[in-house]
Write a structure and sequence with these properties.
By secondary structure, the protein is an alpha/beta fold. The chain has a single domain, classed as Rossmann fold (3-Layer(aba) Sandwich). The chain is built from 10 helices and 7 strands. It has a 7-stranded mixed β-sheet with strand order 3-2-1-4-5-7-6, sandwiched between helices. Strand 4, helix 4 and strand 5 form a beta-alpha-beta unit. This is Methyltransferase domain-containing protein. Pfam families: Methyltransf_11.
């Protein structure tokens, strides 16, 4: 289940892609299959292990083109183990809402991006997320849970403050918003027939990709999409005023 649109990310073979908070690797897998040189990073030991195993399986099955590479590392988004201006694309899917110092995280993303590079940032959308918070404290008030809800304009402002230029945006996963409302209503840790039935629908959609659910989600994403995705670029050329130009005398 991908949140990021790889066409809007403009991912091309041979590019170096940093997948931050990669989880179990869903975005890293697609980037690798598209011929990227993938660096998948997460703090969790199980997540790193799972992602590494599956990327290895993709390589063994011959599903990645020649030239594709991968590396899976443990790391902290506030101190990325990556040199300055060294990656072409960054994916930060559903991670910023977990980080208290999101300004420093965005500054790190800007630091490692090459000039002209692009980042795709996704966060829970304000409206669906607010309903989840209202229905259940357990949904977010736990160790490692969501600590903030972003409005779209706030996220774009923070990207700009980090020296990035926000561009296109869209919403994703409309079918997942009602599932989480239902789960929050009955209890996040509880089971129910309704939750199980909805989950089966989501699994069916994921595995079969039927036209009925794909069409429904495409139509509902602008209204109910659970995730907001914003694409932002690091300027190719920084506009820097030197001290000499500031002191240059004005002609009279």
């Amino acid at each position: 289940m991908l949140t990021v649109d790889y066409d809007l990310l403009d991912l091309r073979p041979g590019m170096t892609v940093l997948d931050l908070g990669c989880g179990e690797g869903r975005h890293a897998f697609e980037a690798y299959r598209r011929g990227a040189r993938v660096i998948a990073l997460d703090r969790g030991v199980p997540e790193v292990g799972t992602t590494k195993r599956w990327l290895g399986a993709i390589a063994a099955a011959g599903e990645a083109p020649e030239g594709a590479r991968f590396e899976v590392v443990r790391g902290d988004l506030l101190a990325l183990p990556v040199p300055d201006a060294s990656v072409d694309r960054v994916i930060a899917a559903e991670v910023l809402e977990h980080i208290p110092d999101d300004a420093s995280a965005l500054a790190e993303i800007a630091r490692v991006l090459k000039p002209g590079g692009r980042v795709a940032v996704s966060v829970p959308r304000y409206f669906p997320e607010r309903i989840c918070w209202a229905l259940s404290d357990t949904y977010h008030a736990n160790e490692g849970g969501h600590i903030r809800i972003y409005r779209g304009d706030v996220l774009r402002t923070r990207l700009t403050a980090a020296g990035l230029e926000p561009g296109r945006q869209h919403h994703a996963h409309a079918l997942h918003a009602p599932f989480w409302w239902l789960k929050c209503a009955v209890g996040v840790a509880k089971d129910s027939a309704a939750v199980r039935a909805y989950h089966r629908l989501l699994v069916w959609d994921l595995e079969k990709r039927p036209w009925v659910t794909r069409t429904a989600e495409r139509l509902l994403d602008p209204v109910l999409g659970k995730s907001l995705v914003v694409y932002a670029d690091r300027p190719a050329v920084a506009a820097v005023r030197t001290a000499e130009s500031e002191l240059e005398p004005t002609a009279v």
